[in-house]
Design goal:
1 helix; 16 strands; 14-stranded antiparallel β-sheet; mainly beta; Phage tail protein; two-stranded antiparallel ribbon; signal; Phage_tail_3; single chain
Length: 214
Amino acid sequence: MALSLPTGTLYALATVYAAAVPVTAGTNATETVLSATNTLAAGDYVEYTGSWSRATNRVFRVKAATGTTVTLEGLDTTSTSLFPAGGATGSLRKITTWVPIAQMISCEPSGGEPKYATVNLLDVENEISLPDGYSAQTLAMSIADDPNLPHHAALKSAAELRKIAAIKAELPAGSKILYNGYISFDESPSMTKGQVMAVKAGSALQGRPVRYSA
């Protein structure tokens, strides 16, 4: 059994991306290998956008790369019903700049609960529930107010441009969580006597988070 506290978690916002690299094919494997002419290296973080709906708009770490292939760590595409053969075409964008989000007070995920469709059959007394995907996911962030810190301008810019941007959380034990979504930001701070002034930011996720144990 392992118990963890979030104290020491570091957050960062992706602010600069390299030019998109076209993906022409992908393997069905425990860790997919994409065909793409690139200059990527192991350890890079990339946003995948493409016709594999279970993977699009998510951020992955590069496990290995050559001049013509990229292995995405942890992206299991062995199921051809979820990842149709020949359906990997799309693009990769390397994240080149992360801006630390300092003074985070809280970061609360919500949504992602399974949804069910209720079915009533005439010859069955009990209703039947069938799985029907998951609810939309969001992040709600509370950040101690300081408009002079770099993340303030970065969050404001991403929100005003309605940009999809990645957020990276590095937990104290080394685990990493990658989120990707539309950024929102309210730079008007809360003002409660005896409490730290705080601004609010959020992310409307466009794909499920990706987590690495180290």
